[in-house]
Amino acid sequence: MNRPIFLPKADCSANSNIVVKVDRVSVFYGDFLAVRDVSLEIPKNNIVAFIGPSGCGKTTILRCFNRMNDLIPNTRIKGKISYYDTELYDMEVDAVAVRRKIGMVFQKPNPYPKSIYNNIAYGARVNGYQGNMDELVERSLRRAFLWDEVKDILNQSGLDLSGGQQQRLCIARAIAVEPEILLMDEPCSALDPISTMKIEELMHELKARYTIIIVTHNMQQAARISNWAAFFNVETNNKGDQTGYLVEYAPTKTIFEHPQEQATLDYVSGRFS
Q: Which of 25, 36, 120, 264 is deepest in the core (most CB within 10 A)?
């Protein structure tokens, strides 16, 4: 049996500016069509925001990028999602390798019930990291703007931190395994305004090293932090089933100031119902 292939490094690609390409992707849960016919390209070292009403498929598409939907029974993907020149759903591609390259931060902070230090070190150990672990932990926490707050309490549980600190710890944990892309599913929705501001500042710093794709319901946040924005909408059939679809994808300034579709204008201006 052939061993599953791993994903290429960025410099192996001839088209290195586009890190993810989505080509006519539809997602099914059993026979139910959750999202239909999505096509877009994610540019490297940008922040891309997915916006739209509940049920429009933003998180469903986001979870396709690191194959998290593989964990949901009876999920089927139609179409093609490429990481550089590698098709992510090729049978020879290892899903674990995908998740090393494409990390995820969830809506609710979810530190491991371990020390702050071991929250960072655990994933690195599992992935066979051979370098200096102390240096990796410090570097990851510094990149997440958390080192100065926790450097004297590294042996305390990550669960003892505040909500905003826990979310930054989860970001530090994600980047410790050196991904290229960070997926963020409403990472600030459970946080207070000050913690939200810190996460947004962190994202601005991180995009120099990573490509970030964020799902958010906060229009002001999308306008503040993203370079590109994708507006998704939802349609209901005569049986009452809802299917999400991509309406418009463009630079954020265009989406908020000069959208091409009336539905986009209605949503970003608050006239959407």
A: 120
Is 69 part of a structural domain of the chain?
A: yes
Q: Which domain holds residue 252?
A: 10-114+179-268
Regions of the chain with pLDDT less than 50: 1-3, 10-14
The pLDDT assigned to 124 comes to 86
Residues 91-107: b if buried by 16+ CB within 10 A, e if exposed:
eebeeebbbbbbbbbbe
pLDDT in tens, 77-120: 999 999 998 999 998 999 988 998 999 999 889 999 999 999 99
| CATH code of the domain in which 224 resides | 3.40.50.300
